[in-house]
């Protein structure tokens, strides 16, 4: 079993360095920083607030689901990250320098990826005409975290899965 885990770890590190090199143009243009910041918490609240304020059809039920989903996501993500305690890439390899300073020491799962895919899952159901946009945006937020050097690929995959599962669970709840 340890050989399998070591192989997965080596592949994760190889993929991290490959993606980091491949996305250099994205970092140099600062687009990766902007995309990553679009996945920061306050923007979710602001977008939901604007949708409710302008009375977008379905925005109230979306807001209710988002509040429940994030009430589940935040403590669960925090508990997982602080229980599993996987070091970020820069802490694993002291010669590596990330582009941005991460908020904490641990990387698994990616909170940005978790929140982005939770939001995308809920928004895609509430506003199906924009589903593709929401999922492309969530994928770019997740990828930006590797491009900026603060997450391994498995961190963002785990975050995407966790966020999607929380969205699915939240959508099963009787709301409205």
From TrEMBL:
Broad class of where this protein is predominantly found: membrane
Annotated SUPFAM superfamilies: Acid phosphatase/Vanadium-dependent haloperoxidase
Gene3D superfamilies in UniProt: Phosphatidic acid phosphatase type 2/haloperoxidase
Reactions the enzyme catalyzes: di-trans,octa-cis-undecaprenyl diphosphate + H2O = di-trans,octa-cis-undecaprenyl phosphate + phosphate + H(+)
Regions that span the bilayer: 31-56, 62-80, 115-138, 150-171
Localization per record: Cell membrane
GO MF annotation: an example: undecaprenyl-diphosphatase activity
InterPro entries per UniProt: PAP2/HPO (IPR000326), PAP2/HPO_sf (IPR036938)
Database matches in CDD domains: PAP2_like
UniProt key word Membrane: yes
Membrane topology annotation: Multi-pass membrane protein
One Pfam short name: PAP2
PANTHER family the record matches: DECAPRENYLPHOSPHORYL-5-PHOSPHORIBOSE PHOSPHATASE RV3807C-RELATED, SPHINGOSINE-1-PHOSPHATE PHOSPHOHYDROLASE
Record protein name field: undecaprenyl-diphosphate phosphatase
Species, as recorded: Aliidiomarina maris
